[in-house]
Amino acid sequence: MTTVLNHLDAAVDAVLARVQGPIVLGLPLGIGKPNPFVNRLYARMKADPSRPLTIITALSLEVPTGKSELEQHFLAPLVERVFKDYPDLAYVKDLRGGTLPPHIQVREFFFKTGDYLSNELAQQQYISTNYTFVARDMLGQGLNVIAQAVATQGQGEDWRLSLSSNPDVILELVERFAETGQPLLKVGVVNREMPFMPNGAEVSPDFFDLVVTDPAATHTLFAPPNAKVSTADHAIGLHASSLVKDGGTLQIGIGSLGDAIAQALIVRERHGAEYRRILEGLCPEGLAGRELGRFEQGLYGCSEMFVNGFLQLIEAGLIRREVYGDAVLQALVNEGRIDPAAPGEAALQALREEGRISEPPTAEDLAFLKRFGLLVVGPDGALEPGARLRSGHCMTGGFFLGPGDFYERLRTMPAERKARIDMTRIDFINQLYGHSAEETQLKRVQRRHARFMNTTMKVTLLGAAASDALESGQVVSGVGGQYNFVAMAHALPDARSILMLRATHDTKDGPVSNLVFSYGHTTIPRHLRDIVITEYGVADLRAQPDHEVVQRLIRIADSRFQPELVSAAQAHGKLPRDWQLPEAWTHNTPQALDDRLHPWTVAGLLPGFPFGTDLTADELKMVAALRRLKKATQHPVELVTMALKSLWEGKEAPPAYLERLGLDEAQGFKGLLLKRLFAGNL
């Protein structure tokens, strides 16, 4: 029986009373954590060394603070405006500060990118696993409490809860515990800022053992501002968008690359002629094999992460291909034998021909036909063929995370539109095999022409990819669902896996290539190589021999590193000694790329923030200057040059900028130099 508690401390008391001894607490990744409840439970157990606590989770989010004094001064008002009353997790603060008590452990299976590279304890307690194995592994870790933030709707007999952002793992987890008979205390904590999502995320209050309704558990959701989309990001997004088939299935991720892909798809839909011209400038060997047309059928979004880019595509009308929860019905829709917009009597006949319904229909058949709108009650009370199919979904996601306006648009979305979004289990989304042969077949027919797009950090010339960790073994983020989607792309007959990366990244010693001959860590092995994209082009690697794979990847590398890549491949016998890079691919430089795309940025088709930003115009100028300054501090020669230039030109920054950064009353050599450097970079 569910116990409803209206105070967080009472909930903590109940958990400690019901679970004797050590507590192994499972928390959702991202924004699904009930932070106020977790903090109170953590504080109570931190003070009692006799009660060990293990927290198993992922993506523990923390409000940005900045490393330097300038960054801290800049961020303070931005954090107050954007993150408002978001409460940081106390265990994160202790883990970062090295003050985690010895009787408490924090084990994460996915880190916020790069946040724990130098944290030895976090690195040691990291769990490397596929997203689809998380429920299994939590069970294996001895989990005995699961706590989750939930949305609420209605009251009394109509009271319902929604797992909102995170139905991803908990549904499978509860099933696994029920099958094994192991005890699991389930705690739902109401946060009224969570969007109420229907379909797979909606549950009855009795799904939980404890439901906490304390108003103190409601707070602003963690809302990272949109990242700026760089020229390289736009180029990658344009290449990726030209591989998406109309009527197909799409997976993209968060961040600037996800936004770049979404924007490129919108440009393709609304500005076809310009889209073609942009791509012609990016593709030295022409546009053969690229998809350039509009989306007459629309796309279906199927992604472990439902992000702002997907919502933008829904609102732009591109994500609109609905899928239906029946394999036979979906197959008939795919074949064109049932028109979702006008099914009529023809749909009933097609279902009879396939043996899906009987003549006359059974009670089970009638329930099926009513569920999908194939039969409706007419004006005279009799059943008649429906005017259009119902209960379809155009977007399926496992969890969501986005900027503040993303959550607000979900909260205020009309119910009929929200019903087309199905937040559901990750074991349904991230793999083909299901609980039955019919479920497996359903996934296969829903996910036609799938393009599963993921980012990676390094790709070797033989096609292996490193996406989660460095060759030192230090974990940058996590495997997440990347392996699942790559494997699924090879299992579906018309799907493709697309791994995207920027051709280079900056270090204190200058730029280095992200395409390398070999690397000491692998996330995706070379035998699963498929399509790789950099800002300089597309390398289709599927079914190709090694020498062709090497050549195609060198073609899309930064030209500053192509000679050494050729030499390495030839030295190891993977490239003919007389092979030469075609001249058309020897101009892969940032400047040449900027020259090609800058006119389209000016024209408004490739903006830095295609979906807006939480930063003001003044803040954007300040960020740009601070980034230039930060980059220069990593390169002594560049810093000296910048300092001399700033002192010589004697530029002045607006007083409001200086006050924001704490430089308005700068004293001493360091303070005055920083003031000059900042002004010189505006």
UniProtKB/TrEMBL annotation:
Domain Acetyl-CoA hydrolase/transferase C-terminal: 404-568
GO molecular function, a single term: acetate CoA-transferase activity
GO biological process, alphabetically ordered: acetate metabolic process
Coiled-coil regions, chain positions: none
Keywords: Hydrolase
InterPro entries documented for this protein: AcetylCoA_hyd_C, AcetylCoA_hyd_C_sf, ActCoA_hydro, NagB/RpiA_transferase-like
Superkingdom: Bacteria
Stated name of the protein: Acetyl-CoA hydrolase
